[in-house]
Design goal:
D-Maltodextrin-Binding Protein, domain 2; 11 helices; about 325 residues; alpha/beta; 9-stranded mixed beta sheet; two-stranded antiparallel ribbon
Length: about 325
């Protein structure tokens, strides 16, 4: 009988998921040589090569890909077993694998912190990627949940809305449109936009809005992160279309202005998504219920976005009122 250790299976699953010995080693706080040694012992026990070089990295062999699918199932069942034991011990624990699109990283840590106050034994493994990378992990069924702004198509998933997601057009304070009120969407036709990469949920929402008003998108730059777009907008390089969660502090400080465009901010939803066939450990099920029940209030606990916007607009209008009195 061939025997493998759970440690070896854990390490192999991490390498299969990340396609990197370095990232797998960091995840388990081990050195890369230590991980390599355990994987070699696993291959010897299996009697087959599971990994092979690919350029400067590694990839799974054909046997390795099939082996990885079964390893994920085994580890998931072991996690369920640990959860059963934890419930009998009266301990709230378990591991939750959470994928987060980059736009949501501004509020998700606050939600996790609140959940962990009452569930200190839960271990979150969180990955933050763009939408395309998150969808790859969702297809591979390596995540318990994904937090994203638009449920995927073509994947058998369960999606539950849990909080509003406001999106709008942003500009530098000195931009000519920044002090105009009740702009028609057509006023954006000649403006250059700094946009996210194709496939981004934010970009898709922007394109849908402009297209619905027969405005052709004119792009000046394409960037893969919200932070880069924010800095470019502040520098006056163009307009941005972003979730207002990403610019809450900049709006309040007056470093960025939300353009007063009819039909905006657009209200979308944040969704908690999981594969329909994925079996969740009890801790993950409880986290899902917590998010749907409490996330919206927690996200707004530092000040409702609409209140921030009202405050910003009142400050913007104040100089005009003073000038009229003079």
């Amino acid at each position: 009988m061939r025997r493998y250790t759970l440690r070896q299976l854990d390490l192999f699953a991490a390498v299969a998921r990340t396609r990197s010995l370095t990232r797998a080693a960091a995840e388990f706080h081990l050195t890369q040589p230590a991980v390599s040694m355990q994987l070699k012992l696993l291959e010897q026990a299996v009697g087959l090569p599971l990994l092979e070089p690919a350029g400067r990295g590694i990839q799974l062999t054909e046997a390795g890909r099939e082996f990885a699918e079964h390893v994920e199932e085994i580890l998931e069942r072991i996690q369920h077993l640990e959860e059963v034991a934890a419930r009998w011990r009266g301990v709230r624990s378990g591991r939750i694998r959470l994928g987060v699109v980059s736009t949501a990283k501004y509020f998700v840590p606050r939600l996790l912190a609140q959940f962990l106050r009452s569930h200190p034994g839960v271990d979150f493994r969180m990955t933050i990627h763009n939408r395309g990378q998150i969808l790859e992990e969702l297809r591979a069924n390596t995540l318990d949940f994904v937090i994203m702004g638009r449920p995927p198509e073509g994947i058998d998933c369960v999606a539950r809305p849990f909080a509003p997601n406001l999106l709008g057009v942003l500009a530098a304070p000195q931009h000519p449109l920044s002090r105009r009120r009740h702009l028609k969407p057509s006023a954006l036709a000649d403006e250059a936009f700094i946009v996210r990469e194709p496939g981004s949920g934010t970009r898709a929402a922007m394109e849908r809005f402009l297209s619905s008003h027969h405005v052709k998108l004119r792009t000046s730059m394409e960037m893969s992160s919200n932070e880069s777009i924010k800095q470019a907008v502040i520098a006056g390089l163009g307009l941005g279309f972003l979730s207002l969660h990403t610019v809450r502090s900049e709006l309040a400080a007056g470093r960025i202005v939300l353009l007063d465009v009819e039909g905006l901010p657009a209200e979308r939803q944040w969704f908690l998504v999981r594969r329909a066939a994925r079996r969740l450990v009890p801790a993950a099920e409880e986290f899902g219920e917590f998010l749907v029940r409490e996330a919206e209030a927690l996200i707004n606990s530092e000040g409702n976005l609409m209140e921030v916007l009202a405050h910003v607009r009142s400050k913007r209008a104040a100089p005009r009122r003073r000038k009229a009195k003079e």
